[in-house]
What we know:
By secondary structure, the chain is mainly beta. 5% of the residues lie in helices and 31% in strands. It has 3 helices and 27 strands. Residues 11-18 have low confidence and may be disordered.
Amino acid sequence: MPSxxxxxxxxxxxxxxxxxxxxxxxxxxxxxxxxxxSTGCVFYVDPNxxxxxxxxDGTNPEDPLLTVQAxxxxxxxxxxxxxxxMCNNAWQYHNNADGYLTPIAEEVVISVPGVRLVGVNPSGxxxxxxxxxxxxxxxxxxKALDVCVEGFLFYDDNNAGIRGIFAEWGxxxxxxxxxxxxxxxxxLAIGVQLEYCxxxxxxxxxxxxxxxxxxxxxxxxxxxxxxxxxxxDYCAFAMSCQGMDYSFIHGNSLSDWRAITGAAATDAGIxxxxxxxxxxxxxxxxxxxxxAAPGDYNDYNTAGATxxxxxxxxxxxxxxxxxx
Length: 324
């Protein structure tokens, strides 16, 4: 489901072959070099490439940048820029002999609107590994409109309080309209957090452990979001989205060993407490139909008072009521 569906970014070539390049900047004298044009640039990031440096131009894959943040800093609003991050071999079961052992390991702030950040990886991969290096890090902080993030494996097994992606509203920095797709979130405290974020499109991701998608009830809510076709495997809380309004949640698959075995799993599924007018339909939930028992449909989920919950699949049948 995740990164195997990533589409390669286009366009790749925007300059005439005779372009002489920019003196002193490696990589600008090629067809894929520096583009002074209103259409987008592709900036390449590969910390495993020999000589990779943030002093380079970055638009030639043979002269890549070292860090994602350096590439983001070269982007311009709504030019159609793409940051293409090359695959690495840092997944926990890698073979050292294969090389490419350096992961993406940084905190990135995206404050340029209209940017697409793409992990370029083999078909069927869980994504380009992106690791935390210390406690309480936010790996990607979205503070601009119309940002797309796809094709990454955000994971950590050694640090606490790690947040994968945080789309945040702020003063003149609005993280609205993000697209978060084809990623894997493994071993994090929070996969994706939304803070007063509208029109988020979150789909075809895999979430393991922690809180999958989270809205902090102590902060501003989120609204008009579309969350679909994600997998949540044994998360402490799959979708803890209290206060979310006017959103669509559909086609997701939630698996939780507590609910499967009849243990208490209070609000560990879809929690829309204090939300309004959400539509929740055609999700697959590893719990039993309402039975006034631990781990059942009503224990596992909570609806907002004005939500519509339509045809959600439980282990023993179709739920046609709103969970309470």
